[in-house]
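Whiteboard transcription, Tuesday session. T.W. wrote the structure tokens on the left side:
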């Protein structure tokens, strides 16, 4: 049995740990059953944002008349849209694998890895042992228990990204991040979408004003059912038909395609982590301490399988922390402040507490909200609904949370994050006092800060 200083399972953010440890002279094994690069590169953030860019362009063309222009989308080469993304990420993934295989450290073990003992992993019948282990094996789509679902063809996000023919209609089960991103993409290019959401609002983890607004706007554009219970799905002719209970009524909804985007579940079960003694919680996620250590000595975990922040940028941060700890430079993880964005329409970005979380934690806070159309650039863009919402601690002036919905939300948020990182108690003043370009959209952030009344 081959023995390594370190075994890393998963080649997403885990690759950062493997490469960094190898550079420092550790003998490293990398285990990956799928394409190199993990979820983000192959079936997540990179390909999804590439195809969504096409939808954003289509949306701008559809709005041309608002700006005195006559324009329309004459033809959509849907195959080109998706292949542009998939050819790019596939080439990148192959390049990563080629570069790893060209060297002798890390050593790549391609296949489904599973634990057979505390520090022993089996891949394709071969057993390898690691003095230290990093579990970064991610998560997969969670398939809800719905009568008939196992008997009909359906897509997860992985399949939705690789379609080459634009469907005429689609049912989307779920209303979270993935559902609203892919739903926007398909709808803007011409698919008639029907969203079936169990919760009463879309993206319910967002601040309540944000989730309420996007739900309201989507009701005007698409077919949405919230507070639903899907009792059955079946194939009828060329359509997939879902039986949905909403309130006191029962509806049957048919579509050409079915997309399941109802959350994720960790891959701890496929790894058989119980054979290491590593504990998991009731959802299967692996609890770790502030050093990303599991309950077993010399075994760390990071990324989606931990279930803390399920973003690639948070996984990269965790990977940096884990690498330092493996190399003996003891370092606790510092997530503050952890932002995220949802690339749908309208775009959403947020950092810190939602208002409902602030209420649950009994914070004494004030709210400042400023709308895009209260700025010159917002008016120029004909933006009617977007806003920046700040949640400020009444006593310390700390920015507890920032929530943005509207064009370029993901680009407006970082200055808030930088201010928060610079100092919890001086972030608000930094936003107020920094000179902003006029008339740029970023003025909406500054004016939200200037509008705070303590």
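and on the right, the sequence the group agreed on:
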């Amino acid at each position: 049995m081959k023995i390594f200083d370190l075994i890393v399972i998963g080649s997403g953010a885990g690759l950062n740990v493997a490469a960094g440890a190898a550079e420092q002279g550790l003998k490293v094994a990398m285990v990956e059953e799928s394409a190199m690069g993990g979820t983000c590169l192959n079936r997540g953030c990179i390909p999804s944002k590439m195809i969504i860019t096409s939808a954003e362009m289509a949306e701008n063309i559809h709005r041309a008349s608002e700006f005195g222009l006559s324009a329309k989308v004459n033809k959509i080469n849907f195959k080109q849209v998706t292949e542009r993304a998939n050819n790019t990420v596939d080439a990148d993934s192959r390049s990563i694998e080629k570069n790893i295989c060209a060297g002798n450290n890390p050593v790549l073990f391609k296949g489904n890895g599973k634990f057979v003992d505390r520090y022993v992993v089996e891949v394709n019948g071969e057993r390898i042992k690691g003095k230290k282990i990093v579990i970064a094996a991610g998560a997969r789509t969670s398939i809800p228990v719905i009568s008939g679902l196992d008997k009909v063809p359906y897509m997860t996000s992985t399949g939705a990204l690789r379609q080459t023919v634009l469907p005429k209609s689609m049912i989307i089960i779920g209303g979270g991040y993935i559902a609203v991103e892919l739903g926007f993409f398909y709808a803007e290019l011409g698919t008639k979408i029907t969203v079936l959401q169990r919760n009463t609002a879309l993206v319910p983890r967002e601040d309540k004003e944000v989730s309420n607004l996007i739900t309201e706007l989507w009701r005007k554009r698409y077919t949405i059912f919230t507070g639903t219970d899907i009792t059955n799905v079946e194939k009828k002719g060329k359509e997939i038909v879902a039986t949905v209970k909403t309130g006191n009524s029962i509806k049957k909804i048919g579509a050409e395609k079915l997309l399941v985007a109802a959350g994720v579940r960790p891959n701890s079960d496929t790894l058989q982590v119980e054979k290491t003694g590593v504990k998991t919680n009731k959802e299967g996620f692996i609890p770790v301490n502030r050093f990303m250590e599991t309950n077993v000595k010399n075994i760390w975990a990071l990324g989606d399988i931990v279930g803390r922040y399920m973003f690639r940028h948070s996984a990269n941060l965790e990977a940096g922390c884990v690498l330092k700890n493996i190399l003996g430079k003891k370092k606790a993880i510092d997530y503050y402040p952890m932002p995220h964005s949802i690339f749908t329409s309208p775009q959403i970005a947020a950092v810190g507490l939602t208002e409902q979380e602030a209420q649950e934690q009994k914070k004494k806070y004030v709210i400042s909200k400023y709308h895009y159309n209260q700025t010159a650039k917002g008016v120029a863009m004909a933006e009617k609904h977007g806003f920046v919402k700040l949640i400020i601690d009444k006593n310390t002036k700390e920015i507890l949370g920032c929530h943005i919905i509207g064009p370029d939300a993901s680009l407006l948020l970082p200055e808030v994050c930088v201010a928060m990182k610079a100092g919890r108690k001086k972030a608000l003043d930094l936003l107020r006092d920094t000179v902003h370009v006029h008339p740029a959209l970023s003025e909406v952030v500054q004016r939200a800060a200037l509008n705070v009344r303590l």
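Someone added at the bottom: Residues 78-102 form the longest helix (25 residues).
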